[in-house]
Write a structure and sequence with these properties.
CATH architecture of the largest domain: 2-Layer Sandwich
Number of domains: 3
Order of helices and strands: HEHEEHEEEEEHEHHEEEHEEHEHEHEHH
CATH superfamily of the largest domain: ATP-grasp fold, B domain
Number of strands: 17
Strand content: 15-25%
Distance between the termini: 62 Å
CATH topology of the largest domain: D-amino Acid Aminotransferase, Chain A, domain 1
Enzyme class: ligase
Pathway: Carbohydrate metabolism; tricarboxylic acid cycle; succinate from succinyl-CoA (ligase route): step 1/1
CATH class of the largest domain: Alpha Beta
Helix content: 25-40%
Bound molecules: guanosine-5'-diphosphate, manganese (II) ion
Family: Belongs to the succinate/malate CoA ligase beta subunit family.
Organism: Methanobrevibacter olleyae
Cofactor: Mg(2+)
Shape: elongated
Structural class: alpha+beta
Number of helices: 12
Largest sheet: 6 strands, antiparallel
Length: 373
């Protein structure tokens, strides 16, 4: 099974290899939102299982969230070697001083693992293999013996990297071999491993696990599955957006709104363990749905703590320059902290579901009356 770069990176990280913190996005809107969390330029990377994305135009940079939106739109409509791009990995754009190539795979002819490494990594590695094969160090590992860190350092030395890099690159070779070994990989590869002011970082990651061994690596397999949607989002024909955490609670919110004479515009269940990030996303989602006049957010703190919800709401309201008519009901775990945050931010809230639903319906009627004038 081939792994997407983002899930391969998680596996590499678990063995000690440094990666950038990344975000996976599925739409230009999400890319725009994620981009606002970075202070500098970002890289948007098409997540496909074929290689050579860079050359195929699947790796692009953006300086701000507007650009991120446009580029994400472009990349998400791209096909790379016949494979549709369905999601992107967003990371900070690295300032690259040097690119290295490291790989561990099966040497079928020799019936051993083989480590290949070069101080001239990057997109031209295949070209290099043809024109200057001597620049790629090849080292067969005895599978019956433990592969030791000093052997890895020896490979790094042969790569001809600066003496100060022999030990850190040796370490990464050793860690990459451990990934290969522990995860029953057919290939584990970093191209490029980059040198930055913050040290050595895996800027790309390739991992393929033997299909017959997948049963041993179910957690990694799950990571690699295409994400199902965060939210259950249904557009309805009313004007009050109902958001809740949990399907039951969301439905109850809709019932209450209906009971007091209102009409729900959405059913949006943000799920049980919703983080403050997903609340921001949920709010942005309904606020971009035109018929919505009032947002009714019905949260019961459980796994999701009420203070996290409050932070999410405050952040999302800050994001939206336009005035948002929102009625919030907040109770449950950590409710005091959450309510305090709202009070400090000057955002009103309710504790009773009934009161909150009534208020949302009334607010919506007032807005419509005003608009009718
Ligand atoms: P691949 O073409 O599918 O192997 O995709 P990679 O992830 O290896 O990216 C291709 C190339 O894009 C790399 O060799 C880098 O030169 C460049 N690249 C990728 N990420 C960054 C980044 O964060 N900053 C800069 N400056 N270049 C990057
Ligand atoms: Mn690469």
């Amino acid at each position: 099974m081939k792994f997407f770069e983002h899930s391969a990176k998680k596996v590499f990280e678990s063995e000690g290899i440094k990666i950038f913190e990344g975000h996976v996005v599925y739409s230009p809107e999400e890319a725009m939102e994620v981009a606002t969390e970075f202070s500098g330029p970002i890289v948007l990377k098409s997540q496909v299982l074929v290689g050579g994305r860079g050359k195929a135009g699947g790796i692009k940079f953006a300086d701000n969230s507007g650009e991120a939106f446009e580029i994400a739109k472009e990349l998400l409509s791209l096909k790379i070697k016949g494979e549709e791009v369905k999601h992107l990995l967003i990371e900070e754009k690295a300032d690259i001083k040097k690119e290295f190539f490291l790989s561990v795979s099966n040497n079928r002819a020799n019936k051993t693992p083989i480590i290949m490494a070069s101080a001239e990594g990057g997109m031209e590695i295949e070209e290099l293999a043809k024109t200057s094969p001597e620049k790629i160090i090849r080292y067969n590992v005895n599978p019956l013996k433990e592969f030791l860190p000093y052997e890895a350092r020896e490979i790094a030395r042969k790569m001809g990297v600066g003496s100060e890099l022999v030990s850190p690159i040796g370490n990464i070779i050793w860690e990459l071999y451990n990934v290969y070994d522990k995860y029953d990989a057919e290939i584990a590869e970093i191209n490029p491993l980059i040198l930055t002011d913050d040290g050595l970082i895996a800027a790309d990651a390739k991992l393929e696990i033997e299909n017959d061994a997948l049963f041993r690596h179910q957690d990694q397999v799950k990571q690699n599955r295409f994400r199902k949607k965060d939210f259950a989002f249904v557009k309805l024909d009313g004007d009050i957006a109902v958001i809740g955490n949990g399907a039951g609670l969301t439905l109850t919110g809709m019932d209450m709104v209906t009971l007091f004479g209102g009409k729900p515009a959405t059913f949006l269940d943000i799920g049980g363990g919703a983080s403050d990030g997903s609340i921001r996303k949920a709010l942005n989602l309904v606020l971009n749905y035109a018929p919505v006049k009032v947002v009714f957010l019905n949260v019961l703190g459980g796994i999701t703590r009420a203070d996290d919800v409050a932070r999410g709401v405050i952040a999302a309201l800050d994001d939206n320059k336009r005035k948002v008519n929102i009625v919030i009901r907040l109770t449950g775990t950590n409710e005091e902290e959450g309510q305090k945050l709202f009070e400090e931010a000057g955002i009103p809230y309710e504790i009773s579901l009934e009161e909150a639903a009534k208020k949302a319906v009334k607010l919506c009627e007032e807005i419509k009356a005003k608009e009718a004038k």
